[in-house]
């Protein structure tokens, strides 16, 4: 886990952004949806930028209004979009979020999207080589064979350049069959420096086991640092030498969409600032908790000052 001194970006993320339509009210009349921004790796990029990281994002967008809205978002957030490609022949993907007693659910309209048409030849090798961390996800790999190849090409370039790899499996079984997801994701775990699965992801990959056993199995695959996200319970952070359960924070949550991505972006930013892993996880738990207090993936993501105020007000213990 070397830390490059010659980098011009802290993180480059690669994947698919999706315009988001979030169910806001259920009443007798028509269901209302508010529009926002989603897509796990774009969420990661915004979360990291809001914590002060120098961030770049690579994807393909449609040459459409929704694509323009993403460029505006990333530019507002100070994210480098110089390598983003526009595709005149395919659309920017969208998704709907609905809410019920069991939580939030996604409905996708992304088949054939511009991002799904990316391939290994599109990967911005120079930007990866100039970044300290490359962040990719299982969703980036699930959307098409070309995108999956692009992710592996990006990882290969990162490893050759000494750029660390951060990986969130983010397994979405609506996008690919479980057997393929397991094969690809487990292979990627062995190439990652930071592996940041949810408990649900890890269970899909490795079967029902206690969190400690899941973490052991992921470390055994070769990932030097695992952060197993346990939702409101917090995170189990592990290296081959040590493991610590870092408790989460209780807040009035209304929508957990993007909380895991917020954790990832905040955690990697803290690690790059030189914060010890357990403290980085505590900071990221706070950022993730705060991101659940509003609707949508991106809107409620906190800025660094808000996370620091929250941590100062909470004191040492989680609560
Ligand atoms: O992690 C939140 C994402 O899942 C959401 O923003 C939509 O990227 C998305 C996806 O593919 O599910």
Helix content estimate: 25-40%
Order the strands across the largest sheet as they lie in space.
Answer: 4-1-9-10-11-12-13-14
Instruction: Please give the CATH class.
Output: Alpha Beta
For the largest beta-sheet, the strand count, sense and barrel status come to: 8 strands, mixed
Instruction: State the separation between the terminal residues, measured CA to CA.
Output: 32 Å
Tell me the number of strands.
14
**Uncertain runs:** none
Average pLDDT, all residues: 95
> Ligands in the structure?
2-keto-3-deoxygluconate
- Continuous helix count: 11
CATH homologous superfamily placement: Ribokinase
Tally of individual domains: 1
Helix-strand topology string: EEEHEEHEEEHEHHEHEHHEEEHHH
- Derived from helix and strand composition plus strand pairing, the structural class reads alpha/beta
Strand content: 15-25%
Question: What's a concise summary of this model?
Answer:
With 319 residues, this protein is α/β, with parallel strands linked by helices. The chain has eleven helices and 14 strands.
């Amino acid at each position: 886990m070397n830390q490059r001194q010659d980098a011009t970006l802290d993180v480059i993320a690669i994947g698919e952004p999706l315009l988001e339509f979030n169910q806001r009210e259920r009443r007798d009349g028509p269901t209302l949806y508010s529009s926002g921004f989603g897509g796990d790796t774009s969420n990661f990029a915004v979360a990291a930028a809001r914590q002060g990281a120098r961030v770049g994002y690579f994807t393909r967008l449609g040459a459409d209004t929704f694509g323009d809205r993403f460029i505006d978002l990333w530019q507002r957030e100070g994210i480098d979009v110089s390598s983003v490609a526009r595709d005149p022949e395919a659309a920017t993907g969208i998704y709907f979020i609905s809410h019920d007693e069991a939580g939030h659910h996604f409905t996708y309209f992304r088949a054939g999207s511009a991002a799904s048409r990316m391939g290994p030849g599109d990967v911005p090798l120079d930007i990866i080589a100039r970044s300290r961390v490359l962040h990719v996800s299982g969703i980036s790999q699930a959307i098409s064979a070309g995108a999956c190849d692009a992710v592996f090409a990006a990882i290969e370039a990162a490893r050759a350049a000494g750029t660390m790899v951060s990986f969130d499996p983010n397994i979405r079984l609506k996008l690919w069959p479980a057997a393929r997801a397991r094969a690809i994701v487990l292979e990627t775990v062995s190439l990652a420096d930071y592996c940041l699965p949810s408990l649900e992801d890890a269970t899909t990959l490795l079967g029902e086991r206690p969190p400690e056993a899941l973490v052991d199995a992921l470390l055994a695959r070769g990932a030097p640092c695992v952060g197993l996200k346990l939702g409101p319970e917090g995170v189990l952070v592990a290296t081959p030498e040590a493991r610590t359960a870092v408790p989460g924070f209780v807040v009035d949550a209304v929508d957990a969409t993007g909380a895991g991505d917020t954790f990832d972006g905040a955690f990697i930013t803290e690690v790059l600032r030189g914060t010890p892993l357990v403290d980085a996880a505590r900071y990221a738990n706070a950022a993730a908790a705060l991101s659940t207090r509003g609707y949508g993936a991106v809107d409620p993501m906190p800025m660094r000052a808000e996370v620091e105020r929250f941590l100062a007000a909470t004191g040492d213990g989680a609560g």
